[in-house]
Amino acid sequence: MTVPEFLERLCLRFDFLNLHHPAADFFVPNEQSLTEALGRVTHLGIGAHQDDLEFMAFHGILECYRKDHLWFGGITCTDGARSSRSGKFERMSDEEMKNLRREEQRCAALLGEYAAMIQLDYPSSEIREPSDSPLTNDLRELLIMTRPDVVYTHNPADKHGTHIAVVRAAIQAIRSLPLNLRPGKVIGCEVWRDLDWMPDEEKVIMDVSGGDPLASKLMECFSSQIAGGKRYDNAIQGRRLANASFLDPYKSDGAEQIIFGMDLTPLVQDQVLDMQQFVSGFIDRFHSKVKAALL
Q: Residues 11-58: pLDDT tens digits?
């Protein structure tokens, strides 16, 4: 049996989840029932594109890897149709790219031993609409099924519009839940803008030292992007190394690789806290620190 055939056999679709797109893809690597797989998720990643989870939420993947009591679950929101392509992928149609990106994400879920991997199949243009999105409802339903302790998603200071749309929908979905169903921790992670600029005391410091073997295996799954013209593997590892070395100018490195996060938990605990105001607070405090150092 080939790897794609094996992945296809393990890919499950269920009607009891009322999701917006009928082509939404459910993958359970260990052949558990979907209900069981979703029910044991402790760390949930909500990303825009195939490979975002492996880049930004690697702390959660590593923390759960081969642990009996901790399980990572992934949600990828878009369909991958508009992914960049070059070289041998240059002539691929949007539909071919969608299928390839879906397989790549399943491959990562298999190698990372995720509890479950859900791909919601939204076109990027659809979720960028600022009005109430079906994506919020999909995420709400999946959050109810998983009830994770920790959620990793994009940070709201990211510069990619689709990433912003996903974090907005994720926050809205969590806020719609009763307090006792909301995750205890929500972390906004680095992708299309790092978080080095945040005041150190406000950063979520995620130590991923020693995770290179797993990180490399996961990144190799996404050849359509890395071999297709974007060396995300080098860039992500370089950022993690730089974060560790440049965290403290007065101490020896305490970790080999670090991912920075923004604590978004206050946004899901306070129903009226405005996201723009919340992020502006970090920027204003950074601005004040820079000014004070120049006095």
A: 444 445 788 898 899 999 987 899 999 999 999 999 999 999 999 999
Could you tell me if 64 and 169 are in contact, meaning their C-beta atoms sit under 8 angstroms apart?
no
pTM of the model: 0.92
* Bridge partners, 186 (sequence order): 151
How many Cβ atoms from other residues are within 10 Å of residue 203's Cβ? 20
